[in-house]
Design brief:
Layout lengths: L15 H12 L4 E3 L1 H8 L10 E3 L2 H11 L3 E6 L12 E5 L2 H18 L5 E6 L5 E10 L3 E8 L4 H4 L2 E5 L4 H9 L4 H5 L10 H16 L3 E11 L5 E3 L2 E5 L15 H4 L3 E5 L8 H11 L5 E5 L5 E2 L2 E2 L13 E4 L3 H14 L3 E4 L9 H14 L5 E3 L5 E4 L4 E4 L14 E5 L2 H13 L6 E4 L8 H9 L6 E6 L5 H13 L4 E5 L13 H5 L2 H11 L3 E2 L6 H10 L7 E6 L2 H13 L3 E2 L4 H10 L10 E2 L1 H6 L3 H11 L5 E6 L4 H14 L6 E5 L7 H9 L4 E2 L2 H24 L1
Parallel strand pairs: 12-13, 12-16, 16-17, 17-18, 21-22, 21-23, 23-24, 24-25, 26-27, 26-28, 26-29, 29-30, 30-31
Antiparallel strand pairs: 1-11, 2-5, 3-4, 3-5, 6-7, 6-9, 7-8, 9-10, 9-11, 14-15, 19-20, 19-22
Helix pairs in contact: 3-4, 6-8, 11-12, 14-15, 18-25, 19-25, 20-22, 22-23, 23-24
């Protein structure tokens, strides 16, 4: 008779004394990976539903124990020296006779001897009844802390990697959402007539393990795999492994910075203003003047006189009062001295443009330490070093030496860019300005010696001029601060689009646990962005496109898309993209179909995608009416227009019709495939009317999917408040 594993008891909050005892237990053990036996011992005070295991020391004792447990049984050789027991032949399954148990014991001891393992013990366990195998665990990310992993478990976890990730803490409700996001969710919900899997107790177990992950930082990783869920909802842990680390990092307290003098200064001084037009100081000065900064501008040059058409002072001390912002365009060592002077004079904000700090090695790191010390406990805020500056179209301020703004007027929009790469930021901004969409504020954070991405995020999310935030992200020094800043943006209903570099990191200890392999650095960032309702962008040059779309386009009611196109082939390709992004091709209302039949040429096929044909595209008013009808259809949530070789005067005419037809209450996005020079005026007209034009349908559909997903996430969050 098969012995039933002990069911898991309802999860209750674990008292602090138990967690404190666990921390003490982990600290007394040697750091590193441990297997099932040690993991069981450490976690014993929690009462987790491990399958019972009895140690045996001979074949005779194994047979006796198996008889008491009830055949069939499982036998294992447990050791911390071999993490993957099955691969090493240290697991024997379905032993249903005394002879099979006797032989299995001998095989296990022979394998242990061959491996040269010194700490192995042989155990007998009841063979667990059939059920659904899931994985539960965590890996401790150095930035964000425990990343909880839950999903399809057992031997398939490495093959399918069908798991969901979430930063702790995780409630039972959130654990259920994790399971529902899995590819295998239909199997859990009842597939092809099978009964659904009752995951209630498993989700409670996720919440309990989540508490443990936060309370015992010395447990760096944990795998409970598989956790078998039985048809009655009870669950049992069949295997476990863990990674122990001596101590977790302590949290640092952080200052809160007032960035108003940096982003909205009333007066600016440029230290290092040069008469050589090629020097950064000269370019910063020229940029400030050409883009119309309305406040006082003070060139600072030791020779005095006139620089860039303005009277210069030899030093900051000659100014009648400290400026709000000082742009320091000096080499690294001289820049540190200038910052010290700014602190002495009570300057509120400084931009240090020079490179040669922490990014260059030991000498640069020493300079970086000097810079931090210079502003520590002062009222001076530093942007940089190693930055290209701060620009605000709202404030008519371009405190930058970047050529991205050369030849373009500053065009205000609700988009704000925060970037950890000056070169990338300048490139993206130049595209946005050239395409006529503008950018309200942008800042490159440089080395973040004092102020980091999170500080800028929180500040700009709080401005009334900000409608969306775009972040080019390499990494953050403080995960909690970053999450808090994203939460501030979400609370203010400011959408955030993020392009994250380095997402392919597979984790530092992938060999030690499944969780380590499944929740590397990129996965941790992805989980944080999803939890805080940010949209992760997969194409670098799509970052500002999607951020602008999120901030300036009406929110769709759902994901039903109407495609209006001047090419059947382009429409078909766009329909494929709609499906790939898990959107839905809308079905037109019969009344809409009747209206469309009366508008389109007789040979046109009225369906979605809707091909207006070349004749329809060039007929006066046809495009306007078709887009109107598509947008007015009650079964359509957003309209995607794909234009092909429409150029010159026709481009302007068609663009005007689309602009006239856009309802203002539903999103209308346009992809125009012809080279920009042939349809420049038409594309510019749409930009002026607040309609986004994309060069590629895939980018348009990605933006549409971002609109739909962001609305769904925001709605879901609001229902919980």
């Amino acid at each position: 008779m098969t012995a039933e594993p002990a069911p898991v008891a309802p999860v209750a909050p674990v008292v602090g004394d138990v967690h404190a005892g666990l921390r003490a237990e982990v600290r007394r053990r040697r750091p590193g990976a441990v297997g099932e036996a040690t993991a069981r011992e450490i976690l014993a005070p929690l009462g987790l539903p491990f399958v019972p295991a009895t140690s045996v020391h001979s074949a005779t004792e194994a047979v006796f124990t198996a008889g008491g447990v009830g055949m069939p049984v499982v036998m294992k050789a447990l050791t911390d020296e071999v993490v993957h027991k099955s691969d090493a032949g240290l697991v024997e399954l379905n032993l249903d006779t005394a002879e099979a148990v006797h032989i299995a014991y001998q095989r296990l001891t022979d394998r242990v001897r061959a491996l040269g393992v010194s700490d192995a013990r042989v155990v007998v366990q009841p063979m667990a009844p059939d059920g659904t195998d899931l994985i539960l665990g965590w890996v401790r990310d150095p930035t964000f802390g425990p990343v909880i992993v839950a999903g399809l478990g057992g031997v398939t976890v490495e093959l399918f990697r069908d798991v969901a990730r979430r930063i702790a803490p995780v409630t039972a409700t959130e654990a259920r959402e994790m399971l529902q996001s899995l590819t295998c969710a239909p199997l859990l919900n009842g597939f092809r007539g099978k009964a659904p899997v009752d995951t209630t107790r498993f989700c409670e177990l996720v919440a309990q393990v989540s508490e443990l992950a936060l309370a015992v930082p010395e447990l760096a990783e944990l795998d409970l795999n598989p956790v078998r869920v039985h048809p009655d909802g009870t669950c049992v842990v069949l295997d476990a492994r863990a990674v122990l680390e001596p101590m977790a990092r302590e949290e640092d307290s952080r200052d809160v910075f007032d960035l108003t003098p940096l982003a909205r200064p009333r007066s600016i001084a440029v230290v290092g203003a040069s008469r050589d037009a090629s020097r950064p100081g000269a370019r910063i000065l020229r940029s400030l003047r050409e883009h119309g900064f309305a406040g006082a501008i003070h060139p600072v040059n030791p020779a005095g006189g006139e620089v860039g058409g303005l009277p210069a002072v030899a030093s900051l001390r000659e100014l009648p009062e400290a400026p709000d912002l000082v742009c320091v365009a000096l080499p690294a060592k001289a820049a540190v001295e200038s910052v010290r002077e700014c602190v002495q004079l009570g300057v509120p904000a400084v931009i240090v443009f020079a490179s040669g700090f922490g990014e260059t090695g030991h000498e640069g790191q020493a300079l970086d330490a000097e810079l931090r010390a210079a502003v520590a406990k002062s009222g001076t805020t530093v942007c940089g070093p190693n930055t290209i500056g701060v620009v605000s179209a709202h404030h008519r301020m371009a405190a930058t030496f970047s050529q991205a703004v050369n030849g373009f007027p500053l065009r205000a929009s609700g988009t704000c860019l925060i970037a950890q790469s000056g070169a990338v930021a300048g490139s993206l901004v130049s595209r946005e300005l050239a395409d006529g969409y503008g950018i309200g504020d942008w800042v490159t954070v440089g080395n973040q010696s004092q102020v980091d991405v999170a500080d800028y995020l929180e500040y700009f999310a709080g401005l009334d001029t900000t409608r969306s935030l775009a972040v080019f992200l390499e990494g953050v020094p403080d995960g909690d601060r970053f999450r808090h800043a994203l939460a501030v943006a979400r609370a203010r209903a400011v959408p955030v689009a993020v392009f994250k570099t380095g997402v392919t990191d597979a984790g530092r200890r992938a060999v030690s646990s499944h969780s380590g392999a499944l929740a590397g650095s990129g996965a941790a960032y992805g989980a944080v962005l999803a939890q805080e309702s940010a949209v992760q962008v997969t194409e670098m040059t799509g970052l500002l496109e999607i951020a602008w779309t999120l901030g300036h386009t009406p929110s769709p009611a759902g994901g039903r898309v109407a495609i209006v196109t001047t090419s059947g082939g382009a429409g078909s390709a766009t329909a494929d993209l709609i499906d790939q992004h898990e959107l839905e091709l809308a079905e037109f209302d019969p009344g809409t179909v009747t209206e469309l039949v009366g508008v389109l040429p007789a040979f046109a096929h009225v369906d979605n995608p809707l091909d207006v044909t070349a004749e329809g595209a060039f007929a006066e008013g046809t495009m306007r009416r078709v887009v109107e009808l598509a947008a007015e259809d009650p079964g359509v949530d957003l309209v995607c227009v794909v234009l092909t070789s429409i150029a010159g005067a026709d481009a302007v005419r068609v663009a005007q019709q689309i602009a006239d037809a856009a309802p203002g209450t539903k999103p209308v996005l346009v992809s125009w495939l012809v080279t920009r020079s042939l349809a420049e005026e038409g594309m510019a007209l749409l930009a002026d009317q607040g309609i986004r034009v994309f060069t590629e349908p895939a980018r348009m559909v990605a933006a549409a999917a971002a609109l739909v997903s962001h609305r769904a996430i925001a709605q879901d969050r609001s229902t919980r408040v």
